[in-house]
């Protein structure tokens, strides 16, 4: 695998005996002859073309899309609700994440030319925003769950102050998970004049790589996926039961969010898990190793697409955001040439968005009342069925 994945995913190490400065996976369990026969030149040549190109595309689209999202949320949304606070943090996280990609692209195509300080900083920044982005998606799923399934009982929990506190906790947890990058990642020179940025675990490389891989599989995929499935299955049950306006579109959007998360992250996490098995000597065939190397490069790049797609999916699930997007586009494209007309248009769109927000809030309140009524009726029925046998 190429140098970028070697460094920021903490899965590979540099072979100090490489004649052409190529990167190899850590095959400490293989004997010297087998290691020398398992060359990675073709895979490295593929990575030097594929990864810089793909990273450049993700950088351009991710930077543009998240900047647009951030501008709209910060300048066109007068009062940000809980979900929009998480969306702002998600956009910031994605922006900081894509900023690291050009560094890794240059490192793959050439070598690390940015020094030891930036090596540590970029690796740490990558890990922080890798996890924080996934965590903020989970926060938005939780908020939607509380909004629909528990509209009345947990209404006081869905405040801007609470969302800011939870956002601070998310950033703190993500920072804590980047500590191995701060400690172990550094630059290495081999051969002379060629620098690379990757972690140095000393004599405990296999243990650390296994630990970090399991951490990523659990914290970065399994727990968020199971939480998402639980939240949206409960939301789906409520929507099917109460049949509010727009039920069909809401169900389709919920399914799209779950499917997008699974499609983007499952192949990558599965490949990481198989690499862990390889490090534990479950298999050491050179051909299998080559296939895993290619798969890791491709699935990693697919997973990074979450920076481009996920914020758009969550943003467009809100009618209020779509209204503000129209306002922004009207301003930029210049559909209203006169400044007074533009101000009137902005005021009109703002008023329309305010009414849309009131409609959404009214709809949620009605949904909560209907749920409360349903729970009350269910409680009466259960009480009657319980009291019946007792009085006999």
TrEMBL record:
InterPro entries: CCR1-9-like (IPR050119), Chemokine_rcpt (IPR000355), GPCR_Rhodpsn (IPR000276), GPCR_Rhodpsn_7TM (IPR017452)
Keyword Cell membrane: yes
GO biological process entries: calcium-mediated signaling; cell chemotaxis; immune response; inflammatory response; positive regulation of cytosolic calcium ion concentration
Region (Disordered), start-end ranges: 367-392
A GO molecular-function descriptor: C-C chemokine binding
Cross-referenced Gene3D superfamilies: Rhodopsin 7-helix transmembrane proteins
Transmembrane segments: 53-76, 88-113, 125-143, 164-187, 207-232, 253-274, 294-316
Keywords: Cell membrane, Disulfide bond, Endosome, G-protein coupled receptor, Glycoprotein, Inflammatory response, Membrane, Phosphoprotein, Receptor, Transducer, Transmembrane, Transmembrane helix
GO CC annotation: early endosome; external side of plasma membrane; recycling endosome
Domain of life: Eukaryota
Compartment(s): Cell membrane; Early endosome; Recycling endosome
CDD domains to which the protein is assigned, alphabetical: 7tmA_ACKR2_D6
Name of protein: Atypical chemokine receptor 2
Biological source species: Chrysochloris asiatica
Upper lineage: Eukaryota, Metazoa, Chordata, Craniata, Vertebrata
